[in-house]
């Protein structure tokens, strides 16, 4: 596989280049990080980060189930429809991590325009298949979204994370995210 370096992407961890003629990023190094050596965590040898496609819907559906089994009521067909609508009608960026022709993770960023702050990207969804966690997939996904946000003039990224997701919090803090506040979330659904 041949790749070419793209200016501005060198800062991405283990970034090797983009596939010619595509927006897919390739990470192609097999490395054990010193901090993970005692855990036996190996980074995946070849991971492609690319924009989501409608055809990814079965993988996204399964990832959603892996993250939260209660999401089963949101069917594969509804996931496919939602992906198609987001691609067609929004400025959101959904990136997937693909390994051996399988989507093993995704991150969904949405422009967040406020009347009291500079423009941000809000992470609406971020999940990595359980058996691939702690192998650099999440780091590569969030680094790719950060690069996209910066390249598109956003001032930063915000996200909400459940208090129980301690491993995710460590990833965010390691990448320079700062815990700002605890809050309660409210929702109202319409019949």
From TrEMBL:
Residue span, N-acetyltransferase domain: 47-191
EC numbers for this chain: 2.3.-.-
An MF annotation (GO) of this entry: acyltransferase activity
InterPro entries reported in the protein's UniProt record: Acyl_CoA_acyltransferase, GNAT_dom
CDD domains per record: NAT_SF
Top-level lineage group: Bacteria
One of the Pfam families matching this protein, by short name: Acetyltransf_1
Keyword Signal listed: no
Record SUPFAM superfamilies: Acyl-CoA N-acyltransferases (Nat) (SSF55729)
Keywords, ordered alphabetically: Acyltransferase, Transferase
Name listed for the protein in its UniProt record: GNAT family N-acetyltransferase
Native source organism of the sequence: Paenibacillus terreus
Lineage: Bacteria, Bacillati, Bacillota, Bacilli, Bacillales
């Amino acid at each position: 596989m041949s790749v070419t370096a793209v200016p501005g992407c060198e800062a991405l961890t283990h970034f090797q280049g983009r596939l010619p003629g595509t927006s897919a990023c390739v990470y192609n190094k097999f490395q054990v990080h010193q901090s993970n050596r005692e855990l036996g965590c190996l980074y995946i040898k070849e991971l492609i980060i690319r924009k989501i496609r409608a055809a990814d819907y079965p993988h996204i559906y399964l990832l959603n189930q892996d993250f939260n089994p209660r999401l089963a009521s949101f069917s594969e067909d509804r996931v496919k429809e939602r992906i198609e609508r987001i691609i067609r009608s929004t400025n959101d960026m959904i990136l997937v991590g693909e390994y051996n022709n399988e989507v093993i993770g995704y991150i969904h960023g949405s422009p967040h325009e406020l009347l009291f702050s500079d423009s941000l990207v809000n992470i609406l969804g971020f999940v990595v298949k359980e058996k691939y966690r702690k192998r650099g997939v999440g780091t590569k996904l969030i680094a790719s979204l950060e690069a996209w946000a910066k390249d598109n003039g956003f001032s930063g990224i915000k996200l909400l994370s459940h208090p129980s997701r301690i491993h995710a919090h460590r990833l965010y803090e390691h990448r320079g995210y700062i815990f700002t506040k605890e809050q309660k979330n409210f929702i109202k659904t319409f019949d």
